[in-house]
Amino acid sequence: MTTSTVSSALAGLTAEFGEPGSRFVFGCDYNPEQWDRSVWEEDVRLMVEAGITLVAINIFGWAQIEPRPGEFEFTALDEIIELLHQAGIGVNLGTGTASPPPWLSSRHPEILPMSQDGLRAWPGGRQAYCPSSPVFRAAAERLATEVASRYGAHPAVQLWHVSNELGCHNALCYCDVSAAAFREWLQKRYGTLQTLNDAWGTTFWSQRYGAWEEILPPRRTLSSGNPAQALDFSRFSSDEVLECYRVEERVLRRLSDVPVTTNFMVTSHIRTQDYWQWTPFVDLVANDHYLDHRLPVPHQELSFAADATRGLAEGEPWLLMEQSTGAVNWQPRNIAKQPGELLRNTFAHVARGADGICFFQWRASAQGTEKFHSALLPHAGTDSHKWREVLELSGALRSVREVLGTEVVADVAVIFSWEAWWATDLDSHPSEEVRYLEQVHAVYRALWEAGITVDMVAPGSDLAGYRMVVVPSLYLVRDAEAKVVSDYVAAGGAAVVTFFSGVVNEDDRVRLGGYPGAFAELLGVRTDEFFPLPHDEVVTLDSGATATLWTERIENTTSRTVAAFLDGPLPGEPAVTVNRFGAGSAWYIATALDPEHLRDVLERAADAAGVTTAETAPGVESVLRRGPDADYLFFINHTHLPHTRAITGHELITDRPVTSLEIPAGAVRVVRTRRTEN
Q: What is the DSSP string of 217-237?
């Protein structure tokens, strides 16, 4: 993926009447196969009324366009593509491979995935296939070839949509086909059995392998398994799902010049794909995101996912491929969006770099698993609050179209790692309650509430240009990646590292000599033992803070103590430290601070580093996008009270000049200001 490729892909999608960059992508999934043809023309007419510019079709079309092996029926797909094209609506064309038809698994039951304890997953849902299956890949390649050959040059097709949410259900398969593919992957990674045995530490529990054929996926065992084996299996599984994408991607590039992408799932409950490894193979980074009401503050996780998606896009604009207008169908309680929440959710994505907003789906299904999933056109039809909200949102996006192509401004980087997520959440650790994403979310929440916009970056990324970098619980880190942080601080940067970081290398091997291992010299501390806390224990610090979950015995080697424990297992021992390292400074937070005091430490570090903090109020989100001639300040009021902000500029949604901006309760405002260059 290159910047020019991404920009070109988005420019094509945002073009209107041949003028690049003139409108936001406003789109949806459409499943015309679920409806009688008599509905199609009405749907297209209403799409035009709603301002829809891009429609994803043929996502789950395999059984319709290949009803029997090798027999293809494209008449219905031809018809809907023409209807959309005649209406001036672009097509995001799916390859149709998201879920195999019944005939494929009936003829080839060996493609069905297997769980860790050896149970087959049968057809009847979706993604009922093993990602490593050569039979499935060959069938998917054949279908993609037929679709690309027929539509690759069609003027309506603006984007290729490979499969759908790859790995959502089937990323981890433990069948014999996967076992053979895993062994092949390991041979390429390690070369020799001796190297693998060393990397996995197989001298432990008599696990040493004498032949490649002896190696299996980490199937269910009587006791804890080998963590290095489990970690490599996560890497392998992400690569195998990526290869499923690449099988089709290569076909599309051979037969068409249309940009290619797939929908990532950067969200709180999907962790199986290391998307840092995927981005070189998409022309446009696209993400699906649904509010997770199992989390304490769902809209903060939305912002986190948007920032992470922008990180994957290397700061370039990106596409929200799916969100919901209201409730979903797959959570224990499927909460509807309150009035104004659809607008707030959408503009949180736009504020953080999305130049396109799409929904699942256009028309709410009358049958099937997702019949109670919300849609742009609900079961109640156009005489509904939801439809009126959709029209309001469409108008609001038109009003801020000049924001297209601008960049989100962030002074702070947060290092985020799918590999560390996999490794941290393995068993047999000091505390099973230390979960990677929870610690990342805690840091992110504190920064969000402090009004600090962040970029999410991969370990080892160039940190030049950031005033501060935050490293939350990076348990697994390579030496070279840790050195990037140390070099950044030595050159004058500021870093904040939180507990359980730097402990192991890429093989899940503990660094000897004391924790925090890879970051010990940078932080100027040495820990000889961890003291995790019982589930309900709370300790206090001399700063007035409280903390839970974790403590550790710290020796200050070159650092100074900022706050110490007053009680708990380590009274008097350091809990928060800061170290002068070269021309910069590095903070260490050795416990799980309460939210208020975690924010306080991060704000102190940010203030010392010269980080620009948005002037805001609790619950009011503020994000800056910058263009060549103007700044655009987004204000999203998540509270039930109005908020006033002194600012001079032009508010785009209400289209009026302002010197004192009122942001009503639950409302969104976007202010254009002209910048004075220094």
A: -----SS---HHHHHHHHHHH
